[in-house]
Amino acid sequence: MPSRLPPFEPDLARASTLPAFTYTDEAILAAERERIFRRTWQPIAHAADLAAPGAYVTGDVDGAPVVVTRDTAGVLRGFHNVCRHRAGPVALGKGARKSLTCKYHGWTYALDGALLSTPELGDARDFDRSCHGLRPVRACVWGPIVFVNLDADAEPLERVLGAIPDETAGARLGAIPDETAGARLGAMRLVARKDYEIACNWKTYVENFLEGYHLPTVHPGLYKELDYDAYRVETHRLYSTQVAPIRRAPTEQAGARQYAPSGEGELEALYYWVFPNWMLNVYPDNMSLNIVLPLGVDRTLTVFEWFRHDGATPDAIERTIRFSDGIQLEDIEICEAVHRGLASGAYETGRFSTLRENGVHHFQALVHAHLTSAAR
Ligand code: FES
Ligand SMILES: [Fe+2]
Known about the structure:
Layout: H1 26-35, E1 42-46, E2 55-61, E3 64-70, E4 76-80, E5 94-96, E6 99-101, E7 108-110, E8 115-117, E9 136-142, E10 145-149, H2 157-161, H3 164-168, E11 189-198, H4 202-209, H5 215-218, H6 220-225, E12 232-235, E13 239-245, H7 251-254, E14 268-274, E15 278-282, E16 286-296, E17 299-308, H8 314-342, H9 358-372
Helix pairs in contact: 4-8
The structure holds FE2/S2 (inorganic) cluster and fe (ii) ion.
FE2/S2 (inorganic) cluster (FES) binds at residues 83, 85-88, 102, 104-107.
């Protein structure tokens, strides 16, 4: 199926967008699951739940169940959450345990994956317990998030993230009020989560995130907050950054804004998108993680999680979420309308704004490259 894809033009000024069928074709989604979602680092849980030895969290990558443990020696370990007996789950939810016992027939595994006991196995012949440990998957923690990658050959998350850890350590956020000084992601805690199911292809939602071109028309409220002229998208190998300076305003108007300019220094919001499907929105006093998950060619789940420093007041959290929710509803409405357009039969392919859509072009080039690369 990917062979039906026409070549993708690397020159933004000459390129056409991905053809409409890539947003509606089941075979394309199957190829995306196999070649993209199962070969990239996926956020699946929270680091706070894995702090102490004995802790475990479960999650899934494109439907494949995984469990991550902090073993008794304090080492982080990832496994397929699939029992070697008859594929039952060895852990549910999250918690703390000395070992993991399968919920089906009770085989028990150590937190390092070794098979410890097999009740009532009887006299099974040629059964070597040491060859039946949990199958490992790669796992790591960055900031407040636990990531898993099903591809044993994928490059380390650290390399994928490039300059993001340094940038989010605070330097580019400029003048930060005292109580939020050092807006370091790792020190933030989860305060809220909201799921949105959207009637569009996952790529449509990601593409919408990757340009500020629609700000004046789709988000008049957010448009007031940000300096649109200075808004820019910087693309890197496997991620892109949207730099959105907060617009300066006369003092009497500042209170009407979500983020009042604080005088000296540049207050910026940093919007990161990391290939293929997660975004980090870093504001002076909070951050949110958005995860985009395909449910079908025309259904997408977006998970929003908000993180703040401990000192943040419930009021401020509530305000942040309300503001973000309003923007999300505006995005959902336009993404669903775009999906209907893509599926209408009236559209084949389009062109990019060279001023505003370099991030979308970058994303589409990566998707295309993954779909057309030689199968491993
Ligand atoms: S499937 Fe796990 S013990 Fe049977
Ligand atoms: Fe938007």
